[in-house]
Amino acid sequence: MAQELTYALITPYSLSKSRTGGIISRLLTLTEHLDLVAVRMYAPGDAFVDAYVQTIEEMDMNPMLRSAFVDYINLNLRPATTNPAGNRCVVLFFRGENAIEVLK
């Protein structure tokens, strides 16, 4: 199989609740056949969020789930969020065979 690159996003809410260590631990355990290739903390701007929402809207998934994702992204990842911790996210990038399906 071909090598794939995929990501996991730790949300601002999880960061504000100090759940980052537990989430990373579970991700590394569940993706033991994948390589963790990069980790970045990121505060996305509106242009990025717009592009991310467009990507989600184009995915083949249950319409109710898609709508929930889009609503969450618009509410929590925009710079004008009401979350006291802001809109900072941690993005982890994984590479390996069938990486998208493994992380899903």
Describe the 3D structure.
It contains five helices and three strands; from the N terminus they run βααβααβα. It has 104 residues and is of the alpha+beta class. It has a single domain (3-99), classed as 2-Layer Sandwich (Alpha-Beta Plaits), CATH 3.30.70. It has a three-stranded antiparallel sheet with strand order 1-3-2. α3 packs antiparallel against α4 (63-76). It is globular.
Give the tags.
104 residues; alpha+beta; Alpha-Beta Plaits; 3-stranded antiparallel beta sheet; 45% helix; 24% strand
> What are the segments in which pLDDT stays under 50 over at least 5 consecutive residues?
none
Bin the strand percentage.
Answer: 15-25%
- List the domain count as a whole number: 1
Could you give a short account of the major beta sheet?
A: 3 strands, antiparallel
CATH architecture: 2-Layer Sandwich
